[in-house]
Amino acid sequence: MDTTSTTTRRGLFATAGMASIAIAVPVAALPARPSSKGVSAELAALVTAHDSVAADCQAFSGNVSAPTLEAAEAQANALPDAQMTINEMTFWTSNRRHQALAAAILAGARDTRDAYHQPYRSFLAAAKRRDRNVKRIHRVSGADAANDRQDAMYTACANAQSAVAAHPVTTAADLHAKLAFMVKHDMGDGMDWTEELFADAARIAAVEA
After folding, report:
1. Which of these, 7, 79, 185, 200, has the minimum number of CB atoms within 10 Å of its CB?
2. Three-state secondary structure readout of the chain
3. Distance between terminal CA atoms of the chain?
């Protein structure tokens, strides 16, 4: 899933700073789902909100977007795929690399209307017609709309995860629950929450000292 942040983040447990965060329970011993015992109402509400959004996203993917896209792809694959041999090379209208090669050949030509380059022009014209038909299928079938909605749901799910990770905690129980949530959802993959977690640890140390 794509997150809303474009910042490249290091792995949660790959950072050297994480090693100095003192927690009572080792990361490997964290449960797959955080216990609600002793967890604040605020953090529990954020976790519940995420679970609801994630369930909706998964249901939409399985029941709507995936089968709609599969059906659209089947229709698109059934479109005629013209094969053309140009200067002893075989080109297919569905092949993006073949399209790019033909376009590059034409881009470097002084006169694309001569007999040598005309077949490349014809090929690209046929490829563009096929591409327009593919786009029409995806639009008319609802695949584009389903994909847009799925992307929005993925973004909402990512935002809900980030809301849990960014929530400031003041108890060891909340920190344990937060870390369990982050491990469960692989939030260390490409994301660096070290600053937030250090702030949590400092806050707990000040409160419980």
Report:
1. 7
2. CCCCCCCCCCCCCCCHHHHHCCCCCCHHHCCCCCCCCCCCHHHHHHHHHHHHHHHHHHHHHHHHHHHHHHHHHHHHHCCCCCEEEECCEEEECCCHHHHHHHHHHHHCCCCCCCCCCHHHHHHHHHHHHHHHHHHHHHHHCCHHHHHHHHHHHHHHHHHHHHHHHHCCCCCHHHHHHHHHHHHHCCCCCCCCCHHHHHHHHHHHHHHHC
3. 39
Place of tokens 């909605």: 149
Residues with Cβ within 8 Å of residue 119, at least 6 apart in sequence: 84, 86, 87
Question: CA 125, CA 172: separation in Å to the nearest integer?
Answer: 65
Distance CA 54, CA 156 (A): 9
The mean pLDDT of 71-77, rounded to a whole number, is 97
**What is this structure's pTM?**
0.70
At 13, give phi and psi (nearest 5°).
Answer: -100, 5
Question: Are 178 and 38 contacting, i.e. CB atoms less than 8 angstroms apart?
Answer: no
**Type of residue at 68:** T
Q: Which of 136, 174, 156, 170 is nearest to 58 (CA)?
A: 156
Residue type, 127: A
Tell whether the model's pLDDT for residue 18 goes beyond 50: no
